[in-house]
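job 3f2a | input accepted
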Amino acid sequence: MLGVNQDAYSEVNLDYIKQQHIHLSRRAAGGGAVYVDHGNLTYAFVDNDDGTDYLNFKKYATPAINVLHQMGVNAEMTGRNDLTVDGKKFSGMSSLKIGNRFSCGGTLMIDVDLDRAAKALTPPKTKLKSKGVKSVHSRVTNIRQYFLPKYRDITFAGIKELMLKEVFSTDDLTSIPTYKMTASDWQEVEKIASGKFTDPDFIMGTKRDDDFFHGEHFDGLGTIEISFSVNDGIITHARIFGDFNKANGDLRAIEDQITGVPFRKDSLVEAFRISHLSDNIGQISPQQMAELMLDKQFREVN
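job 3f2a | predicted structure (302 res):
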C-alpha cells in the first residue's frame, strides 16, 4: 500500500508483485509504502481537530506502545512516525485530514512474511541510508518473538481487546461505546472504494520521464523526491513525490511554480518561497528545496 504522494515506479518491485499476485493499492493518507498481509495488524483513530492533535503521532501511538510494553515488547517511538524495538521498525504511521476530522493510525508487524515484504518494497536509497541500513529486511522486524510467554500465542482478536481496554481505560469491553456498521454503511464504503481507489491512474500515477530524479530524507519530515527536466538552463517539467505526511498539500502548485524558472539557486529559492511549502509539504525551507534540485549528491540512480 502506497502513501498518497509516493512514486509507484520507485517504491515497489512491480515485476515481483505481478508475478506473486500481490495487489497494489494507494491510500489517501501520507506516509510511506507498507506491505500488508494477514500478519499485519492495522489500527486507526478518528478524531476531531482542535488545532493541536493533527499529525501528533506520539499521542495516537502511545496506547499501542503501552499495550506492547505490557506484552513484553520494549517498544519506542523514533523519528517522526515509526515504532521500533532493538533499533528495528515494526510500525509506521500515517494521517489524513478532511474538513475538521482526521484519522491517525499505523501498522503492527506481528507475523508478516518479511521475505516477501523485502522483495516487494524498493524504497529509495536515500531513505535506507538515513536509517543506516542497506535493505528493507535489515530494517524491519516482527514483534511476536518479543512477547512474554503468556502472550506468545495471542490472537489478533486478543491484541485488539488489549488495545480497546487501554484506550478506554476499562477491563469491561461491554462498557465501551460501540457502533456497528449497517448494510447501508458498508454500501457507502464500497461505493467509495470502488471509485477513486480502484482507478489505475490514482494507484499507479504517470511513469516519470525526466532528465533527473533527486531525493533526500529530512529528519522530522520524511523523504522528498523531485523528478525534473532542464532545457537550455530552464526547468521544463517537475514532479514532487515523497512519504511526508501532508496528504492534502497542493504539489501541483509547487511544480507549476518552478516550471519555466532558470535552473539557478536564487531563482529556485524565490519560486519555492512563494509556493507555500509549509502548507503543501511541511517544515522545509526554500533553500533546502533548491539545494535538493541543484546538488548532484542527491541524485537517485534507478
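job 3f2a | The domain at 208-298 is CATH 3.30.390.50 (Enolase-like; domain 1).
job 3f2a | closed
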